[in-house]
């Protein structure tokens, strides 16, 4: 058995360094052996519980191995100092052997711990929490890109687990331990499931995430229904500047769409872009005959193969209800069967921004045997179909009121342009006002070309978070381009547009 030959071991700091090196090699642990200077530093910082005036013993061998393992997981020395005394020798030994077998122990203290205080403004802990969230967002995007082709699955022991995701789990685990909780971030599947809920929610259960000065409290990293990284996730992932924007999903989709429409030539390019974005917004669930008719009507038949391959999937049988596809009465997309069949007997709309997400109504039931049915891919539903609910509502009102309105002008300079370059409107539905502000502080995009620049915030977000707009304004830069934005709710923008024709006549 392991450790039998060292249970009675005793020695100096130099001997301990050599013994740790021997044990690491014997157990085949993937950690670097600590040098003599490191061992002495650990003793000074009380990581090694050497009784005064006595030599090191078996307990310190276990503590040294545990310290090296936890440091690799991203723990601070302070956190390790707090946790190690709570482990018995037997528990430490078991944890180390589990690591040696390539598994992932929880490093749960064997006694009930008192939560360590993390007061508001505690910057080291706050910095750790924010670093963990940035790494989590980056890791989730990388993991999503790996599983997207359908050839890989998420596996706890998989050596291809993105390093960002692994590092995020280590940091999250340390946050749990420092709050006196068990490590709830040891399982990648648990972490990914929790990412479908706001960081400040009870689902995560981290006090620091719900503190008033934690800026990502409202952020949701994975769409809860469509299971794809959210816009908040993309923005948070880019915060460190070490994560290439070309890896962000929305940017990649935009690039693919622009590359396709550019093949049609300069005059048709922008028109084709608008037609395709409008297709995804109005007809995310569409029969093949209607799809082909739409492509013909908008001169998009040269792109037919690419559009179907890149942006649509066949409606799978598992999403049918009584063998029929249920179309949402509010946004027109495919409603999905829901585990709560009593509350959502006819299915539920997966689009977070749609009224049908909470109060579903079926507009029609389509038979896939009468026509081939296509549904926009989950990433299209998340990044374009959902936001298009507000974008199309604003555009339709503008046109109904006789305004010169253009949808996605010049391949998406903004969402709606009014009277040429007089007014530009962008509709946003980020769950977190802070991540939206971070994006706008980096660039306000094509709105820069418009004289009046309006940002329209989803009404439901404001209902859920009445301080959304004030938080957004307080986080925006007070100078340069972000300071020029007029921030309003979508309903306020619509009322503003309704009054415009009359204002122009006076």
Report what the structure shows.
- The chain is α+β, with helices and mostly antiparallel strands and 506 residues long.
- It has four domains: 4-100, no CATH class; 123-247, no CATH class; 270-380, no CATH class; 382-505, Rossmann fold.
- 45% of the residues lie in helices and 9% in strands.
- The protein contains 19 helices and twelve strands.
- The chain has helices spanning 13-27, 36-44, 58-72, 77-83, 89-100, 123-147, 163-178, 188-194, 231-237, 249-262, 266-282, 288-297, 304-311, 378-400, 409-412, 433-442, 459-464, 468-475, 490-505; strands at residues 10-11, 56-57, 285-287, 312-314, 325-328, 362-366, 373-376, 405-407, 416-418, 423-428, 452-457, 485-489.
- The strands form four sheets. The protein has a five-stranded mixed beta sheet.
- Helix 1 (13-27) crosses helix 3 (58-72), helix 3 (58-72) crosses helix 5 (89-100) and helix 10 (249-262) crosses helix 11 (266-282).
- The longest helix has 25 residues, at 123-147.
- The radius of gyration is 28 Å and the shape is elongated.
- It comes from Nostoc flagelliforme FACHB-838.
- InterPro entries: pPIWI_RE_REase.
- Residues 390-489 form the REase associating with pPIWI RE domain.
């Amino acid at each position: 058995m392991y450790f039998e030959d060292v249970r009675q071991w005793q020695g100096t700091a130099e001997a301990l360094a050599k013994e740790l090196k021997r044990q690491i090699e014997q157990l085949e642990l993937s950690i670097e052996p600590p040098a003599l200077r490191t061992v002495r530093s650990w003793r000074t910082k009380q990581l090694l519980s050497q009784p005064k005036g006595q030599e090191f013993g078996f307990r310190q061998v276990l503590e040294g191995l545990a310290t090296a393992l936890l440091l690799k997981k991203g723990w601070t020395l302070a956190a390790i100092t707090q946790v190690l005394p709570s482990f018995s020798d037997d528990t430490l030994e078991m944890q180390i052997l589990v690591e040696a077998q390539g598994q992932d122990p929880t490093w749960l203290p064997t006694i009930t711990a008192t939560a360590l205080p993390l007061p508001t403004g505690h910057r080291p802990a706050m910095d750790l929490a924010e670093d963990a969230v940035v790494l989590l967002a980056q890791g989730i995007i990388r993991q999503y890109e790996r599983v997207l082709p359908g050839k890989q699955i998420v596996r706890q022991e998989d050596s291809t687990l993105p390093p960002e995701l692994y590092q995020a789990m280590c940091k999250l685990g340390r946050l749990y331990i420092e709050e006196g909780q068990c490590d709830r971030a040891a399982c990648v599947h648990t972490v990914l499931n929790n990412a479908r809920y706001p960081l400040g929610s009870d689902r995560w259960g981290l006090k620091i995430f719900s503190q008033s000065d934690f800026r990502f409290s409202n952020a949701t990293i994975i769409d809860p229904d469509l299971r794809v990284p959210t816009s908040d996730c993309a923005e948070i992932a880019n915060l460190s500047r070490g994560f290439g924007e070309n890896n962000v999903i929305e940017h990649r989709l935009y690039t693919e769409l622009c590359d396709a429409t550019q093949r049609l030539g300069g005059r048709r390019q922008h028109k084709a872009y608008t037609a395709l974005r409008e297709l995804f917004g109005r007809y995310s669930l569409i029969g093949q005959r209607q799809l082909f008719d739409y492509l013909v009507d908008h001169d998009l038949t040269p792109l037919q193969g690419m559009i179907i391959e890149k942006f649509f999937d066949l409606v799978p049988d598992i999403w049918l209800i009584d063998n029929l596809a249920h179309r949402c009465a509010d946004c027109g997309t495919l409603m999905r069967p829901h585990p709560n069949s009593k509350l959502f007997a006819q299915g539920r709309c997966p689009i977070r921004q749609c009224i049908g997400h909470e109060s579903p109504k079926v507009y029609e039931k389509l038979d896939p045997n009468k026509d081939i049915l296509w549904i926009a891919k989950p990433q299209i539903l998340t990044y374009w179909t959902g936001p298009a609910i507000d974008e199309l509502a604003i555009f339709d009102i503008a046109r109904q009121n006789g305004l010169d309105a253009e949808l996605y002008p010049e391949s998406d300079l903004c969402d709606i342009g009014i009277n040429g370059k007089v007014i530009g409107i962008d509709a946003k539905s980020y769950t977190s006002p802070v991540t939206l502000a971070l994006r706008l502080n980096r660039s306000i995009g094509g709105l820069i070309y418009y004289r009046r620049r309006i940002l329209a915030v989803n009404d439901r977000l404001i209902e859920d978070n009445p301080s959304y707009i004030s938080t957004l304004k307080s986080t925006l830069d007070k100078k340069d381009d972000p300071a020029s934005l007029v921030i309003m709710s979508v309903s306020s923008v619509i009322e503003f547009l309704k009054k415009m024709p009359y204002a122009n006549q006076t």
